[in-house]
Amino acid sequence: MEIQHFSHHHPLVFIQAHSVASKAALCLGCQKPVKGWSYGCTQCEFYLHKGCAELELAPKIQHPSHSSAKITLFFGHKRFDLHINCALLQSSIAANFPNFLHPHPLHFIQNYNKEIEPDCPWCQKPISGPFNHCSDCTYPTVFNLHKECAELPLEINHPCDRKHPLTLLPQPPTHPQKCSCYLCRIQWKGFVYSCSLCNFDLTIDDILFSPPTITVASHEHPWMLVSTKIYFVCDFCGTDGDHSPYFCATCHLIVHKNCISLPVHIMITRHHHTISLSYSFRPNQVEDWMCKICYEKVDISYGHYRCPASRCRYIAHAHCATDKAIWDGTIMPKGYDERSEELVDEPWK
């Protein structure tokens, strides 16, 4: 079976079992390796996926990412102005997006289901599924937004500040250089809802991703959101917070939302053993412990990471051990056997 494709001057032959797969042949349409059924010209080493060859594509299209002229479609070793998959995305101008939040128009991309980079600048989370894209911003200042983030209201009423509405800002207000507030500790760079009168800020993560209850495998009871402005010290990391903690009514623990997901066992660059999260609190522990990362005192009446190996006294603050410069995100698998580190019962457990 042969087809005459507009992108190549020779007929393309249907290939059922691709014999050049070992040579990592690329589809000249989408630039991905050819696997399975395809069409090809072996004389020219020109190959197309069956799906790419049968796409109903016009030689020229009008695409919202380039409104001044039509985009010409090329296959083969010629210039690609737009990837085939990108050209096929259903796109439209995002309506009513405030210019002061971003100076360029945004295009709503509907049928895209793969994760893209970079993360959403508003909520700092990965983007997949429908999203808004700015075609005027180019690398390294790429600007993409979750559909949900782009539709956030400019003002909200929130139980954490019952006196004033909170206003959406493209970046956190300026804080003192050595500020120890929660936003500064987690180095939040995304958008915030802010009340300048009360000096109070909420991240987009607080608004969109704070469900009433959270259940995780590392804790046997559900965590319940306390949606109010309240001062507390997190039982897991030992640092303070000023709003919306999560509470375990059974264990009487109160924690930051992000601390709920602290991994139980991790590997860090500063220590050759696995270190484990400890929050089994005991009274009357008067011995001083020093964090092996920041070299400041560790209050072991709150959660921290320590080495379970016998005769190893490595200990670190939870926020120090999970800093991106120290920990690469490696989590020891579920069912990890602490005995492999020669675990001792006292005084660690």
UniProtKB/TrEMBL annotation:
InterPro entries: C1-like_sf, DC1, Vacuole_Formation_Reg. Residues 6-53, 218-260, 270-321 form the DC1 domain. Pfam families: C1_2. The keyword DNA damage does not apply. Keywords: Repeat. The keyword Repeat applies. PANTHER family: CYSTEINE/HISTIDINE-RICH C1 DOMAIN FAMILY PROTEIN, DC1 DOMAIN-CONTAINING PROTEIN. This is DC1 domain-containing protein.
